[in-house]
Amino acid sequence: MKILTLNFLMCARKACKSSSDAFPLHPRDVELEIVETDINPLFIRNILPRVEWAALRAMCNELGLPQLSETQPSCTDLFSTENLDPDATDSEPTQTLRDLHNLLVQTCIMEGKLVCGNCGHEYAIKEGIANFLLPSHMV
Questions:
Q1: Please, what are the averages of pLDDT over each run of 10 residues along the chain (139 residues)?
Q2: What Gene Ontology molecular function terms does this protein carry (predicted)?
Q3: How many domains does the chain contain in total?
């Protein structure tokens, strides 16, 4: 499960849908793995506005990953100032873009748990896949 995926998940219980504590889910006892992939600047540029930056910063703190800046980077922070067109083949990605790619796309949770901050329910992660099926008494 990629770190980016965590930014879009919340507790599956109906009782937690209205609570702000149900997002983000908190990773516990996780095993991280770096899965090398080619950098895709266009993807990072397009997904960045959809990322809940405060939740991502909190997850990085909980996982012991490098601290993120308090302000979300803009598109101009992702490419060298000489060429701001991410579609151009000679566009050089900045270190910020490389760092975001490494964090959001290459860093994966292979084993562990995701815990709801509202109800405390734990969702198991095995082999990189989170199990969000709830027992019948919790639905």
A1: 94 90 94 95 92 94 92 81 52 86 96 95 96 84
A2: protein heterodimerization activity
A3: 1
Q: Which tokens is 73 given?
A: 């980077």
CATH number at residue 81: 2.20.25.10
Q: What is the CA radius of gyration of the chain?
A: 17
Query: pLDDT tens across 1-27, in order?
Result: 999 999 999 999 988 989 999 999 999
pLDDT at residue number 74: 85
Q: What is the pLDDT of residue 76?
A: 77
Query: What is the rounded CA–CA span in Å between residue 130 and residue 6?
Result: 10
The candidate with the shortest Cα–Cα distance to 52, out of 32, 23, 76, is 23
Within 10 A of 65 (CB to CB), how many other CB atoms are there? 16
Find the domain containing 34 and state its range: 3-138
- Give residues with Cβ within 8 angstroms of 44, minimum separation 6: 78, 97, 100, 101, 104, 105
How far apart CA 88 and CA 91 sit, in angstroms, is 5
Nearest-angstrom CA–CA distance, 42 and 20: 31
